[in-house]
Amino acid sequence: MPFVFELLKYILPSVVVFLTAFYILKAFFEQEQKRQETSLKMGIQEKTLPVQIQAYERLVLLLERMQAANLVLRSGSAANVQQMQAMLVQNIRDEFDHNLSQQLYVSFQAWEMVCVAKEDTLKLISTAASQLPENAQIADLAGAILSLSLNPEKTAVQMATDFLKKEARMKFF
Predict the structure, then answer these.
(1) What is the helix (H) or strand (E) element at residue 154, kind and residue range?
(2) Interior CA angle at 134 toward 131 and 136, to 5°?
(3) Is the pLDDT of residue 68 over 90?
(4) CA-atom Rg of the chain in angstroms
(5) What is the pTM (predicted TM-score) of this model?
(6) Do residues 159 and 117 lie in contact, with contact meaning Cβ atoms separated by under 8 Å?
């Protein structure tokens, strides 16, 4: 029996020291891992922040180009109303396709609003063209597009632009 007490006298302090060292080292390594993860996230954020801001800028620019007045002003020459309509629709689709990757950097709701704005603008062009007689001139189409866009309510393009600006301000400024 005295041998067991003698053995415990040496083993018990060793176990206490081992457990203390184990828990201290475990806490240290967990804290070090969190610090490294935070540092990695900060590095990634440092690199992606400019890309995210640029995405908002590009989508606002896309929406500005989709506004009816800007579409009409930027339109090139066409022989007839149908060609003009096709050219406007193609310009919108090309611009939109060029900016598809920007959806990675904005919220789902923001991207949905951009998509709705695109579809709304395409519908506006189609409606304006369908209201014209067959012998209408290109200027008539431009006038019809502008008159349809002048309703007192905010258009989908304006709402999407406002939403993108608000979201960007909340995220970055």
Answers:
(1) none
(2) 75
(3) no
(4) 31
(5) 0.76
(6) yes
CB-CB neighbours of 71 under 10 Å: 21
Contact criterion met (CB below 8 Å) for 117 and 63: yes
| Cβ count near 64 (within 10 Å) | 12
Structure-block tokens of residue 121: 């603008």
Amino acid at 140: D
69 close to 157: Cβ distance less than 8 angstroms: no
Please name which of 107, 117, 121, 112 lies closest in space to residue 167, comparing C-alpha atoms: 107
In angstroms, rounded to a whole number, what is the distance separating the alpha carbons of residues 143 and 154? 19
Q: Which residue type is seen at 84?
A: M
Sign of CA dihedral 127, 131, 134, 140: negative
CB 104 within 8 A of CB 50: no
SS3 content of the chain, % helix, strand, coil (to 5): 85, 0, 15
Tens of pLDDT, residue by residue over 22-59, are 999 999 999 999 999 988 888 877 888 899 999 999 99
